[in-house]
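Comment thread on ticket #2218

A.B. wrote:
> Attaching the input chain for the structure job we discussed in standup.
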Amino acid sequence: MGTTEESAASAQAAATARAGLDGLTCGLALSGGGIRSATFCFGLLRALARNKLLVRFGFLSTVSGGGYIGAALGRLYQQNQKAEAVQERLGSDDTLLLWWLRSNGRYLTPAGARDLGQAFASILRGVLSTHFEVAVLMLLAAAFMLLPYVLMGAFPALPAPFWASAGSVWWCLLALPVFAGCHFIFRYWFCRDRPGQMAGDIMVAVLGAAVGVLLVQSTVSGLVSGGMPWATALMLLGAALLFSPLTAIALRLLEDRNPALVPQQRLRHTKRLALALWCVLAFAVFGLLDLAAWWLARQFLREGQPLAWLSQTSLALPPALVVAARLVMPALQRWLSRPRNRPVKTELLLNVVGLVFLLLVALAWLTAFHTMVRFDLLWRWLPGGDVAARQLNVLHWSVVGGLCLVYVWATRKDFAVLNLSSLHNFYRARIERAYVSTGNYAPPADAPAAGFRFAGGSPLNPVTRAATEQVARLIEAVEGDDVDLANYKPQEHGGPVHLITCCINQSVDDRTGNYNADRKGIALTVSSLGVETGTALPTPPDKLPLPGKLSRWVSVSGAAASSGMGSQTSPGLAALLFLSGLRLGYWTDKLLLPRQASRAPALPAADRQRRSMAMRFPKPSLLLAELLARFPGLRSTAWYVSDGGHFENTGVYALLKRELDLIVVADCGADPGYTFGDLENMTRKAGIDYGARIEFIDPTGQVHTDAALRAFYACVGSGKAFTGQAGPECFLLARIHYARRKLPGLLVVLKPRVLPDMPLDIAGYAARHPSFPQQPTGDQFFDEEQWEAYHQLGLRLGEKLTEPVIAALCAEGKE
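C.D. wrote:
> Ran it. Output below, let me know if you need it in another format.
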């Protein structure tokens, strides 16, 4: 149930309701689906207003595109424009609001030379900023990878590099984690349940060490003679590994051998073995990148060609890769949005492509770093030969690495650059001007007032040429278009409580530190009443101030293309979106009270160290988290929030905890096959999180004496009745059996579908576009006929919901 303040707000919103539905708590959910959902739901809202039902809803829950139009509606409720006036005028066909949204409701995607130029400038600025930050961290990583060579170069008297036969010093250093892995294998085996078995373990350790000594003696001559043939190297490695049982048994003799501690000790050794294996993989990848970068630098350099050409070529590789990804990603997104049977799992393919792309970018910057510091590549042309080259290596490595380190330290706290380099502000500004600005109108007066978007008065006023001329141009930013979320209170003027749902990405479980393979996200709902995470009740704003404006959270709720995408998050796709600049997600400070965070169990030492580093270096920590899709979730110092549809797309989730009598939902997610995937996800989460059972009603064989209800049931179907073809069914009905409430609630689902008796304009558009009304969400720029088709479809389907029908359905559900 909601808080006391929430219940009072709902009661105030329902105070204007007529006697027909008195006493019922009602909620309206507008699902995600981009412009398609916003336009369809606008028609639905107008239909509810015409049927005098809009004021019945005390709660409005929105996700993504449903939030666009939800915010536009909520902003209409003001001191001088109460709920009855909004309902009366919203259903009219002559309002300035209808003219405004017809003209500008498809503004999210740029069009026209000037608009495209601004969009390109925003994307270019973001890509350059993102890539600069990534480049600094990758150059630091390259400095670490070249550290062994620099240490060798600090001692010019050393002989020829001993790694010459191996190709990379990192492949020689593989012996360290391999030895550690063998050591922990034996540590695990030597943890005996009965201490008397130690005698055999000691014999194995001594025998292995003896064989290792013999191998060392047989290979020492090859090591001294210079070079390192593979056979000699492998023999030396084998000799080293034979000493691992000896080190394992020695440490076993020093630790507590109490049998009760054996399970804990084995678990600890297993974890350390896993860490050693990860180090083996990392050293192998370092060696591969090191060798490839060294080879590329040598290939780029031809005898007689200057170093400047090599540096310019190497430095041009990373931007070239990013530009290529930026050009390919939009086409790839459009391809993915088309329904088809694909023999290859798309998510896996994108993950692999993204990881390969990330490795190529890392290779490019490592090659660039080689050209800046590896003067041993040019020792033939340097006075002093190889010795001088090694000395220059140390000098240039120190300068380049030091500059990168100073920059990281100086900007370590400025993680706001991650938001500024994304498309969040570009996307947010468009939502603000096209939808949120509907509340920026002049109060009633004899003369127009300056400083407002709608200087002539409310956008619900009749549309005239004079009224349209008093509206500010869409491309202009007008003060007052946006409002603080804490001051956005339509419920104070008879409107609904607007609940905006987002997703807190969590690919790493806060409690265990393990990879989160399922949801990878937590619901975040914000409103003027506070912040609520998951199934928790809102934290009032007087205890936890709400950050930011309304447009921020509406745009976050619609941030579909993000590095974190809930259950669809993958490292490869995150890298693709991050490096190409196509990301809309947002980093915000943790929105939890200190006492809430302190209730969680203590973290392991390693996790505490990582959190400490994240607090000291938030910008590089969050950058790597977003680049590699490692989002720690609620207990992190910052949250990466994105589209609410990444958790639950219908908007019903936030209403279920209120245990309402009636929930009406517009299910507008792209569903060309009418498989009801969003409803399935919502039903599953309702049972798991709230203990609520949703029972869908089969309308077959239903007999009703009420004429209005009988006519409505002709439009109700089961899931199997819905197809991509025109048909009469456009509603689903279900009973909600709540965990703490005896009487069930009623769920009414409205699904966009072409009916057989559609008007000529809608029928004609549907005939020319077979995928209507389930066209891809990636299409965010509607032309006039497309916008009108979705708007009129929502209007005509919504008109089937009348007050007698809703009253009869609720009465039927209580029987």
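A.B. wrote:
> Thanks. Noting for the ticket: Residues 11-20, 303-311, 339-344, 378-385 have pLDDT under 50 and may be disordered.
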